[in-house]
Amino acid sequence: MRPSPVPAAAGVYGWHFEQSPHPDLEAGQLLYVGIAPRYMANRTSAQNLRKRLRNHYRGNAAGSTLRLTLGCLLGLELRRVGSGKKTTFGKAGEAALSHWMAENARVCWIEDDEPWVLESQLISRLDLPLNLDQNRHNAFHGHLKELRAQARRRARELPISA
Q1: pLDDT in the model for residue 4
Q2: Do the beta carbons of residue 51 and residue 38 sit within 8 Å?
Q3: Which residues pair with 111 in a beta bridge?
Q4: Could you identify which of 20, 78, 111, 157 might form a hypothetical disulfide with 27, taking C-beta atoms 3.0 to 4.6 angstroms apart as the criterion?
């Protein structure tokens, strides 16, 4: 494994895409911001930028709201897996999403000891259509929320996938 350029530190990261995941979203525009670690009043999180970005790139929809959103926008089929409590795009769908991200996703980051403060400021000031939390004011919010809800409803109707 080659060394990662992403620091193992707290911070804020932003995603933009060379090819848009949806016709209503502009390619190249910053579409989503996230943080690592999230704010936890009663304990310390082990998350950092490197771990969180690795999870977005290599994880699955059950552990990454960004992957869930992108997969839904790209029309991948969400399925219940394992015991049926978690949903992913299945092995083939997750692989297709990882390939799409490798081709199109670009990420930037900034180290920050209290990333939740900067994240709130960015969401309130910028047009970040793929963020749902703290972002009801965004014009794309309702569409994205409904698209994800439809995908979850369909997944509940389908048999559990291997």
Answers
A1: 84
A2: no
A3: 11
A4: 20
Closest CA to 105 of 26, 48, 21, 49: 21
Closest to 57 in 3D by CA, of 122, 13, 115, 117: 13
- Residue 95: closest CA among 72, 76, 80: 76
pTM over 0.70: yes
* Cα–Cα distance measured from residue 27 to residue 22, given in angstroms and rounded to the nearest whole number: 9
Provide the token pair at 83.
């015991």
How does pLDDT run across 90-125, given as a tens digit for each residue? 999 999 999 999 999 999 999 999 999 999 999 999
Question: pLDDT class for 130, splitting at 50, 70, 90?
Answer: very high
Is 57 exposed, middle or buried (CB count within 10 Å of its CB: 0-12, 13-18, 19+)?
A: middle
Percent helix, strand, coil in the chain, to 5, is 40, 15, 45
Give the three-class secondary structure for 26.
coil
| Whole-angstrom distance, CA of residue 145 vs CA of residue 131 | 10
